[in-house]
Amino acid sequence: MKTPTTLNAEFSEELSAPGSVTIDGNVVSSGITIDGKNVEITGLSLAAGSHTVTFTGTKDINSLNLLDPNPTSATFVVGDDNVAPTVTSLSVLGENKVKVVFSEELNAAPSVKIGATTVTATKDSDDKTNKTYIATFTNAQVGYGTSKFVNTDVEVAAGYQDMQDNAGLKYTKSVTFNLDETKPVAQSITAKDGKLIVKFNEDVAAGTGNATVDYTTADGLRYSDTFTPTAGAYDADGDGVVDNEYIQIDLTGNTNMTDGTKLNNGTFKVTLPGGYVVDTATTPNGSSSGVLTYTETGSSSDSNVPDVTSVTPDRTGFTILFDEEVSSSALQVSNYTLSGAALPTGTDLYFDGAKNKVRVELPADSIATTGDRQLVIKPAVTDLAGNSVDTADRTQVVNVQDNTKASLTKVAVVDDKTLTLTFNELVSDGTIATTATDVQGDFEVYVNGAKVAVTSVDAADDNTVGATTMTVNLTNAFTLTDTVTVKVLDAASLAQDLASNTLKAISVSNK
Predict the structure, then answer these.
(1) Fewer CB atoms near the end CB (10 Å): N or C, the chain?
(2) Residues forming beta bridges with residue 452, ordered by sequence position
(3) What is the pLDDT of residues 331-348, one digit of tens each?
(4) For residues 62-87, b (16+ Cβ closer than 10 Å) or e, as one string?
């Protein structure tokens, strides 16, 4: 941060569009410029203390990839930050890694030491708060020798710095490392696109030997063949990242078992030899032998994959239009992600008048900022013949709208007939008021529990596009010892935030 009026935000790569930006919940509508990886916001007037900036729909230089997670929020401090970062936890991962979590984001990777060996930790990509690092050693550096476990001290070297260059102190913890001698275990089997998908209990790679597949048709005909596994190529949840605990057994070259794209109906008995896959230990452990069975009942002559025609957002959610009817799988909340996360709890999905039109109703107060978000439709969404949604259409960019109501947070006494109401975000008169009494009906005022008359309400946008305060003028005077309560009515409709959400029904007192 250059000054209390200018904010710089640095991203991991060059940007083409900043998306929408809010600071402490308020939309920043001007003073935003992009310079490569950096976004500069000028013209701010921020009080000393902690603030939160949120980016929604920020795009990289190709204008294809959205921010991850989306939206992303970061906290910054106006004024002097003299608090040094600390290590909040240190734990063992596997046989030769440690995970270190810090109290805040660091400006550079920390150094971690075991014995005489110091390594530079790497940022854990799964932690979007940027507070977690992974330090990887060799088994020799851990000090196993001929032992199967080691008790040793792990040291995080002093000098790691937060974003304000405050340096942290040395941190040491005694931990126990154990050699990984556990065989990977096959847990389940499914099928997709003419392939059998086997899930293991840990990350695996291809080992040795072939799987034997015995296929029996509904008429009792049996066919057998052997297949080698494909590892490191299956994306189970459609997020663009390979899930290494899965292997694929491709049957598409066998015309008795598939039509070239899908499995034929029948039962598939899969015999896996010992060592068919191995785990990622320094000395890889081969899997035990085992037998899995999968039954296919949904194959059809229809091999046309469904396409997404459009995704149309509005104030309460969005509508997905497919080019053909889809199955009830399209109504499963778990088959979608929004900005890399599950759809908000309470999301309602239903067919809107036709089975090719899926309505996604987002629960109120689930979206805090308007902006582009990445909607991922998982492969589990299929048409009536069991064909998954076209791969090219599984990722959509949707301009999801803010549906979080503004809330009254404070009632302050100005004089014996005047109150100032403070809200948690900018509020305007939704009808663009021409008189001071337009929003009067949205509020009730009580003095010591008795309802009193309101003369007028000075709407927030009488002179500006919005403000975080409103003034309420009462007909009769009250005293400083009185308890004054302002009730925002459930039917409030005129006073709205800048995203046109009405006010949250709430009662707030001056004491």
Answers:
(1) C
(2) 445
(3) 999 999 998 889 999 999
(4) eeebbbeebbbeeebebeeeeebbeb
pLDDT, tens digit (0-9, with 9 covering 90-100), for 386-438: 888 988 888 899 999 999 988 999 999 999 999 999 998 888 765 444 344 55
The DSSP bridge pattern shows strands 32-35 and 26-27 to be unpaired
Tell me, yes or no, if the pTM score tops 0.85: no
Backbone phi, psi, residue 140, to 5°: -65, -40
CA dihedral 489, 491, 495, 496 (to 10 degrees): 110
Q: Which two tokens stand for residue 63?
A: 């204008």
Question: For 24-127, where are the E strands, in sequence order?
Answer: 26-27, 32-35, 38-41, 49-56, 59-60, 72-78, 87-93, 97-102, 111-114, 117-120, 122-123
What is each CA distance from 290 to 222, 270, 277, 423, in whole angstroms? 20, 8, 12, 62
pLDDT at 319 over 50: yes
Q: Nearest Cα to 291, choosing from 263, 277, 272?
A: 272
Element (H, E) at 139: helix 139-142
Residue 133 corresponds to which tokens in the numbers above?
A: 């690092």
pLDDT of residue 189: 94
**What does the pLDDT look like over 19-41, one tens digit per residue?**
999 998 888 888 899 988 889 89
